[in-house]
Structure formats: C-alpha cells, structure tokens
Specification:
With about 350 residues, the protein is α+β, with helices and mostly antiparallel strands. It folds into 2 domains: about 5-80 and about 305-350, no CATH class; about 105-295, 2-Layer Sandwich (Alpha-Beta Plaits). About 35% of the residues lie in helices and about 20% in strands. It contains 9 helices and 9 strands. The protein has helices at about 25-45, 55-60, 85-105, 130-145, 205-215, 240-255, 260-275, 285-295, 350; strands spanning about 65-70, 75, 115-120, 165-175, 180-195, 230-235, 280-285, 310-320, 320-325. The protein has a 5-stranded antiparallel beta sheet, with helices on both faces. A 4-stranded antiparallel beta sheet has the order 2-1-8-9. A hairpin with a 4-residue loop joins strand 1 (about 65-70) and strand 2. Helix 3 packs antiparallel against helix 6 (about 240-255) and helix 3 crosses helix 8. It is globular. The protein binds zinc ion. Zinc ion (ZN) binds next to helix 3.
Length: about 350
Amino acid sequence: MENTVKPASGLKKRDDPVYSGDPDFKALLGSFEQHKAYAALVASAMAEIPEFSKKEISLENCGTYLELDGDGILVASNLCRERLCPLCQWRRSLRVYGQTQKILDRLEPDGYAYLHLVLTIPNCKAADLYEQIGFLFRRSSALFSDRLYPKGDQLARHCHFKRAFRGVLRALEVTYNRERDDYHPHLHCLVAVRPSYFTGRDYVSRDLMRLLWTGYAAPLYDLDRLTLFQVYMARIREGERNNAVAEVAKYAVKPFHMELDLDGYRRVLPVLHRALRGRRLLQLYGCIAQAARELRIDLNNDEEAALTGGATRKFYFAYGHYHEVKDDEKEEPENRKTGPAPRGEALGPVLAEP
Ligand SMILES: [Zn+2]
C-alpha cells in the first residue's frame, strides 16, 4: 500500500508511529517535499497545455507555506486545492481517511459488517470518458436505491440485497492503459450490511451481482447480450477495516492511478480534467450518509485546518526543501505565502483565526 493513504500526518493519531518522536517534523516535511516534487512534474506537463496555464501556476505555488502545530497538524497553508494536484490529493486522502474512520466509529454501535464492492464497465476511449462516468454514477445510484429495474422486470425480484445494503460510500477511480490508449472508469464502494446478510436470504453472490449490475446494458457496448461486466465483491474482515477505508480514501482523491511520465501526463490531464469537472468524486448513501450529516462531515469539502490554539511553527519551500521561518522573520509570515490561494480557501490567517 502506498504511504500516501496512511493516517500519517495532519489527521494522525497522536501515537502514530510514522511521525511520533519527530520533533523537527523531518518525516512529515519529507512527505510534503516528495509530493511537492510530484506536483512539479504535473505542473511541467500542464505548462505545455494552454487550458492549464493558470493551474500550472497554482500547482507550482502549492504548499510553499506551511504552519504546523506541535503535533504536526497543518493549521495554515497555501495549498492550491486543484483536483489534479498531487500534493493536495495526498492531503485530501489523509482527510478523507480520518473522516471516514469517524463515520464508521459513529456506526459502530449498530454492528454493521462491511463489503468492498467494485463495479466496472468496459474500457472506453478518451472522447467517451465523460459520458461513461455519468453512466456509472447514474447506474450505481439506481442500483443502490432499487430503481434500476421496474417492478415486474425479471431482474427486479433479485434485487432483495437492497434490504441488507444499509449504507454505501462510493468512490470513482479511472485508470489509463497506455498501450491501448483507453480508460477504465470504475467504482469502489464500501458497503455497510447487516451482519445477517452473509447467512440470510438477502445475500447476493458475486455472479448474481454481475448479472444485476450488467442487466441489459451489454449490447450498448457492442458486447454479446450474455456478456457480463466485471464485479469484485469481498467481505471486509474484522481488523482489515482500516486498510479498506484507506483504499477507498485513496481512490476517492486520486481518481487517476497511473504511473506516467511527462508525455503521458500531457496526453491524460486534459482528458481527466474534462471528464471530472464539476463532479463529486465521493458519494454517500443510507446510514453512511446519515452518520456524515450527524457529524457535519462533508467528504468533498477541502477544509483541513485543525485549530489547537497552541504554538505553531512556520515553514517555507525553496530549492526542493522546507525551511523553518526564523524567529526574526516570524513577524511577517505573509511574505512567505508566495502563491495565489484560489477561491480564497487556503489563506492561512483565515483558517488560523480562533
Ligand atoms: Zn495543490
């Protein structure tokens, strides 16, 4: 598993082994530097795409200023909040991980068991990606809310699993195949089910889920009408929940999981930008949505600051590394915030107000 999904910094528990005993935040700042370098690569690719000229500047200036409290929690920064920014994706994955844990803790007394469900459709070309993601979203919403098949349809009577699916966290992932130059959009779902689901009459096998998920859609993809879409379904065992949450959090914030060089990014970034624009990458249903509402958690909101009221330390980025703002410079930390803060969200002083 990538280190980017461990609760390693801003949302870490105080006894987290990764950054504990690290009074100078060496490991934490090292992670920031690593993602900053990755952001620089993406920014270089953006520099050659006219529609990305503003975003390129945002990424270059992202996270040049950090203010950390004594526990390494980020209380102020100038993160750019761009969806395609690797540094912001990493911070987002930590936030979503922590928030999802809180939601599941809230549901703990209800004794749910959890499934990891992956719903796929056939690969598509760049020109079709936007439409195909829309299809995935609509179809999965209909499946989870029991609206996929009208009453009387021969498949409707198999949709009894809906009674046992009490809540869903749905995240979009898109992978890219370089050889074929096509895209594979699919959904990772964390599903809360009643414990009786596995032994009761509402249980649905993977084969039946494939049948229900595909329905009559195969011919739309020029497939034989008996060909089924791929579905992965597995029970998340006790003790594995954190890993499963981390996986879903990772997909949710880094919807494109691809090892690409500069050339690859040049090709893929405009396609993803158009396909993901304005879309909520995370969607909640049922008891998971209800728990999030009760906790006032919006997984799609990028606010991150955790105000502790204690002393903070300030760092600025230069020449590939973070440097602490010296005492005599602390009077004017504003000067260190070299980057623009798009949409006014990332301004340190705003977040730092008590
Ligand atoms: Zn950023």
